[in-house]
Amino acid sequence: MRPIVEVMKLCPVIPVLVIDRLEDAAPMARALVAGGLTVLEVTLRTPVALAAIAAMKEAAPEAIVGAGTVNNAALLADAAKAGAEFIVAPGLTESLANAARAHDLPLLPGVSSAGDIMRGLDLGLTAFKFFPAETSGGAPAIKALEGPFAGLNICPTGGVTLANAPSYLALDSVRCVGGSWVVPKDAVKAGDWARVTELAAEAAALKR
To answer: Is 3.20.20.70 the CATH number for 4-204?
Structure first.
């Protein structure tokens, strides 16, 4: 498995995917990869999410497919069985960190405060999802946290858009951002994968 920081550096945007229909997984993966986004986060919010991870890996072998919205060790174990190559969590607990270590899975846990980061550092982590980014202070909050915490690797997620992504990517600690705008629900419903590819290409071109 690639270390999580290496995964974060591969693309400026990690699409945050909510997949309702399993049949959408394969064409979605191919469309995103065609646009240049090869790191995909499938959120475990729907009944087909675990199966979608396997379907995406089969449809786009060059993609690195991870599981998001992993709230506990049991979900992490399920994601590992499904073939997830990294784990994204909305928060951080010691049991989740230990489970990721036991399964040898890269972990990107959510933080929103100095205390969260300190707990993560105590657990040997240096990479974090800043979540929910916009309502937790946005880019100015991350810039403030860079002062006391050198060497962080941050992926802001939550309210990130094409318009505000550059303000995050300009920060020293930010390696990538997470966003759902590259896969609009109406495009998925219509099967408009060309539009998804166009949005992915636009996101992939963002500078860090």
So the answer is: yes
